[in-house]
Design a protein that fits this description.
- This protein has 189 residues and is mainly α.
- Among the domains are: 2-53; 131-187, Orthogonal Bundle (Arc Repressor Mutant, subunit A).
- It has helices spanning 2-21, 23-27, 30-53, 58-74, 80-92, 102-109, 113-123, 128-146, 152-158, 164-175, 179-187.
Length: 189
């Protein structure tokens, strides 16, 4: 692949230089017009030759994917940043802040936005919004059980949701039932 990329770069540069010089300079003489033709023919032939001689099959892709999967399984230890994020959520409960953004978490853990994004999306396997909403729903469940005298609007607000519609939608998504159904099922236990 390296050779192929180098040939593409050389071909691009040759094309750029010849375009700068201009086709009218080469049009006057048959000898001059043959120079860019020969250069491009050799470069295109070289690209084709590299492609034909390169041995690569679908089995190679499968083997590469298996090696990557094996590496991931061996290195499933959560990163230090992921541990810091989880600890922050558990101890500080910043997920209860309405309108919490990824940038806010970045400030709390004093890290880079991309690192925090990768720690949540790649390591935890969940998007930032889903992660926060999942934590909020777990908190709302405890409120529904422990403080059943609160209205659902109050529980939504205390859980960090800015609207009851968002609260109901996320509760149904993560808990599988509506908040009222959950509260009713817990009260009959």
């Amino acid at each position: 692949m390296h050779y192929l990329l180098v040939l593409f770069v050389i071909t691009s540069l040759a094309s750029f230089v010849i375009n700068i010089i201009g086709r009218y300079r080469f049009a006057d003489s048959l000898l001059l017009i043959s120079i860019p033709s020969i250069i491009f023919s050799v470069l295109l032939f070289s690209i084709g030759y590299v492609c034909i001689t390169y041995n690569f099959s679908i089995e190679d892709i499968a083997n590469d994917n298996k090696q990557i999967d094996d590496f991931i399984e061996e290195n499933t230890q959560p990163s230090e940043l992921r541990i810091r994020i989880e600890k922050l959520m558990e101890e500080e409960k910043i997920y209860l802040q309405p309108n919490l953004k990824l940038q806010d978490v970045v400030r709390y853990v004093q890290s880079n936005r991309n690192y925090v994004y990768n720690a949540i999306n790649k390591e935890m396997g969940i998007s930032f919004n889903d992660y926060i909403n999942k934590l909020r729903i777990e908190y709302a469940k405890t409120l529904l059980i422990k403080q059943s005298n609160l209205s659902l609007n109050e529980i939504a607000e205390k859980s960090g949701f800015t609207s009851t519609a968002s609260f109901y939608r996320n509760f149904k998504s993560f808990a599988g039932v509506s908040p009222k159904e959950f509260q009713h099922s817990e009260s009959t236990k």
